[in-house]
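ok so i was messing around last nite and threw this chain in just to see what happens. nothing serious, just curious
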Amino acid sequence: MAYINTGRRGLLGAPTYKQLKDATVPALLEVLENSRLPFSFWKSENRLTLNEVGSEILLRSLGDADRLRGMNLAWFGVDELSYAKQASWNQLEARLRDPKAELRCGFGVWTPRGHNWVWKKFVEGEGRGYGLVKARPFENRHVLDAVPDYYERLKQSYDERAYRQEVLGEYLAADSGLVYFAFSRALNLKRAELNPDFPLLWSFDFNVDPMCAVLAQKVDNELYVVREVVLQRSGTAEMCRTVMAAYGTHKAGIVVYGDASGRNRKTAGDSDYAIIRRELGERFRMKVPRANPPVRDRVSLMNSLMKNAAGEARMFLDVSCGELIADFEQVQYREGTSTIDKDADGKRTHLSDALGYLVWQEFGERETAGERGERLI
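result:
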């Protein structure tokens, strides 16, 4: 579009500034350099010029639609469109008004993310001024030439539905129904006894009624939930004393996980983690992030451990964990949304949340698959 519209201005955007800086702009510069297309880049202004034709490309975050007002564009493109706001897309459409443009056009690239506004505009609304090009995953020769089993590897990292959406690019009704759809009693229930040679992983969901925790162990990259603890009308200090009375002498040590908001000081006194430090002294390690992961990512990781796209399970619950089992079998999304319904039953979501914080720290927060410059194995 920049070469067709000689000497005119276009815009390349991403949903957030971080995505623009970390992914979109580096990819653009790499393509230009590999293609030996001469350009000038003003990093402080997020602006680039193609020297052969004098066309300008503005590089912008789309987080604030109002900041896109006032400009005339010959073309625009949006990276990761399904994560952008519709208001930003609408604003960009209104900017396609350069009278000297040879061909005015807007485009976006994305991975399916439920039946959101992007689906309604480009899939449901195709043919009304909007077109859709579907790229088949296995025709990506650039990845497959370097890593022939790339898509097979991804099956180990995703649950079946996430694999179909994120890897195969299918639109699924993934924003309704059961949250932990991958759970199966036949596959994920197993007698899980405490192994004295591995650390005890203890994760909290800070609540007063009920106060909940799960106790688990990670063995050979598999997770075994050995016990759940549910205390009515209780608090963090009582939970600590209850668990330590039973497991305080565990020789392989104790690691504490939980909700990142537990770092916040309470109106009535110390934060939850300050209470844990006071109650446990030096008998534990803590693995708590500064901020909780996105719920969608945490849930997807939990489902992939219960059963990934290759049909393998790496998370097992002792049959005594009745409330956690109930969470996995009953917790639902609010109808038509990707928000977990926490109001349907006050007893639900607490234990699965607690386990999710632990799972994210042990199995998440790292790239599970992706193209590399060289083979890893």
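not much to say yet. The mean pLDDT is 86.
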